[in-house]
Amino acid sequence: MKYVKYLLKYLVWMLNFIASVNSAFSSGRIKEGIYEYSSLNGWMTPKEGAELCESDLQCAGFTFKGVLIEDVEFELYFFHYVETIWLPKNNIEFWDWTSYVVSRDFILLDQSGFSFLDSSEKRRKLMLGFDIMKNPEEAERTCRNLDNCVAFLQNNGSLEVEVLSFIEMDNIVEDLNSTILITLTAQTNQIDDKDNLSELDRCCRESRDVTDIHISQEKINDQITRIDCSISKDDFLENYVRGRVPVILQNCLNAEWFPDPSLPVDLQKFAGLNFDGILERLFNKGNNTSTLIARPKLRRKLMLEMIKSNYKLNFSQAENIYKETMGSKEKSTYSPSFTHNRTPNDLNINFEEMKHQRQLGILRTFIKLSNLNPRLECYEQYRVNETDSLLPGYEQCLVLDGLWKPSPIPDDLYTLTEYNNELAWIIMSTKNTGSQLHFDPDHMGAWNLLLTGAKWWAILPYEAFIEDFTCISSCSHPGWEDGSNAFPWFNHVLPQLRRSKFYGKKVLEFVQKPGDVLYLPNKMPHSILNLEDNVALTENYLFNDGVSELVRSISLDQIRESIDNLDESLAFRSLYNDGNLNFEDRRKMRKTYQILSQISRNFNEIVQILIFFSQT
User: Fold this and answer.
1) What is the CATH number of the domain that holds 166?
2) How far apart, in whole angstroms, are the C-alpha atoms of residue 463 and residue 453?
3) 34-48, 110-124, 366-380: lowest mean pLDDT where?
4) Which pLDDT value is given to residue 591?
5) Which of 23, 384, 463, 535 is the most buried (most CB within 10 A)?
């Protein structure tokens, strides 16, 4: 009886799962790159999306990132045909996606025909006796009852149809003289489409030494939106953070403080220092111990004071910052990442090694902002005749001390939790180094201010899975294994991506120049190729659009193993009660926890049942 009880429980769950996949909404993701109907894509509620898809006879379903809340807006991606809804046990990244499948059994492509028909296709004719546009339901039933029928092709004005046993969606073209009805109940091997994802050649066979790479900036398309830094924090939150739109902020600091990008790199200076001068400043002219002591709590305190005063400072206050920093007894407890195996904070930094890498032209180093020591000599440059007053421009010293952020950028929501966020750096990069395709740790977005030089960015502007787009180690040049060698990917994979769309989106490319502040939403894979020696200030924050991701990690108990001192329940409550979250954010938090906890329990029950079967 016990065996039968477990068997019945298993079967009931499986039936419920299968039913959820085949009707209306279900958990899981429809993968991108095939059967897309991207002209319908956009932000809307799932309820609006369902109504739109049901009324548009070319639509078979849609998918979106998020759990089902029918009256909250998400970014929806539509499809002509839904082959599979993915919800694998071993990939929890699919668990907080939701998909919808229409209730009807056909799609109707009006004014469509074929660019060609396979010569092996035997042309079967059938006198249907009616116009499939006027009675598509009856046409679908007729096709379903015929052997090997997947579609009817009918010329306008004719009552006869051509019976098709196989459809290639990418061969369907606009044709004012015909209509195609495709049954959605056909076998999956009867319907095919050009798969932009699986057709990517990801064998990056060519690599070059960094000194042999020559790239013209003029040939790089500038595809990113650029806005003025005067935008309010509320407008930025609503339009770019909630809307998940990468954007460049301009004029956040005086443009005259930044070097002319047309100058030779050794003449490009910020706060009177070129690349090598900034490197020496950060290490206090070679003192390695100057970057060993981290003071993240003190830095957060000083940042709050700077923001509150709108970065107004006199020399005495600069001296006090120096004294407080150098006298700090803070003992930092570094919070390791719970989404990444390692971060730049795991690297040991040695000034002599940095100088050696600089000479070789392979330097790419991350120096934690919480490790920086203020340099009073920088503020001395702007001091007025030994008085307490500072001339405009001293803000550059704050930037190099890691005590500045763009005013439209929302505050880091991790400050409401016990998570000790130290993912903030000054990055020093030499020409032709870079970073391979990745997304930032722990559900965080980022902002990045470029001080000197130039960076070439490529961003997949949606939550793509890196494994689908990165070079394959087994068939790529061994040099690709170097994490700072981005050239093979830029040279081989990126040109292919330019020709394709995924969820209706194309890869986003642009050159970041001095003074540009990039805002990058969380979970957007990106790669960077440094076109010149450059210096950047960057910081990772938890923004509103990453809170549901964090709740997923909490509900699936993913954080405890990495950060055992984080009270997950307290973190949830602190975020939930914060004024930066609106009513919809809180609903997403509750629903995400509820649904993902249930999926996890279901999978665990299946595992236990299968273990029981194996032991019986």
Assistant:
1) 3.50.4.10
2) 29
3) 110-124
4) 92
5) 535
Query: To the nearest 5 percent, what fractions of the chain are helix, strand and coil?
Result: 35, 20, 45
39 is a domain residue: no
Q: Are 241 and 521 in contact (CB under 8 A)?
A: yes
Whether 565 is covered by a domain: the verdict is: no
Contact 509, 223 (CB under 8 A): yes
Residue 567: pLDDT band (50, 70, 90) is confident
Residue 429 has pLDDT above 90, yes or no: yes
CA angle 568/572/577 to nearest 5° reads 150
Kindly indicate the confidence band of residue 600, based on its pLDDT and cuts at 50, 70 and 90.
confident
Q: What range does the domain containing 287 cover?
A: 210-542
**pLDDT band at residue 337 using 50, 70 and 90 as cut-offs:** confident
**Strand order through the sheet with 455-459:** 434-438, 526-530, 455-459, 508-512
* Same domain membership, residue 303 and residue 161: no
- Rounded to whole angstroms, how far apart are CA atoms 21 and 28? 9
- Upper half-sphere CA count for residue 555 (Cβ side, 13 Å): 23
Residue 272 has a pLDDT of 92
Burial of 232 (0-12, 13-18, 19+ CB in 10 A): exposed
What gap in Å lies between CA 21 and CA 99, rounded to an integer? 8
Q: Is it the case that residue 439 has pLDDT exceeding 50?
A: yes
- State how far the Cα of 276 lies from the Cα of 588, in Å rounded to an integer: 47
How many structural domains does the chain have? 2
One-letter amino acid for residue 245 of the chain: V
CATH number of domain containing 495? 2.60.120.650
Structure confidence at residue 21 (pLDDT): 41
Residue 70 is given by DSSP the state: T
Question: Quick one: tokens of 294?
Answer: 């981290």
Is the per-residue pLDDT at 290 higher than 80? no
| Cα 572-340-427 angle, rounded to 5 deg | 105
Q: What is the mean pLDDT of residues 375-394?
A: 93
Strands 61-65 and 97-101: antiparallel
State how far the alpha carbon of 542 is from the alpha carbons of 318, 412, 526, 593, in Å: 29, 5, 18, 18
Number of residues assigned to the chain? 616
CA atoms within 13 A on the CB side of 545: 27
Question: Helices (DSSP H) in 287-437: which residue ranges?
Answer: 296-308, 315-326, 351-360, 376-380, 395-400
> Given a cut of 80, is residue 347 above it in pLDDT?
no
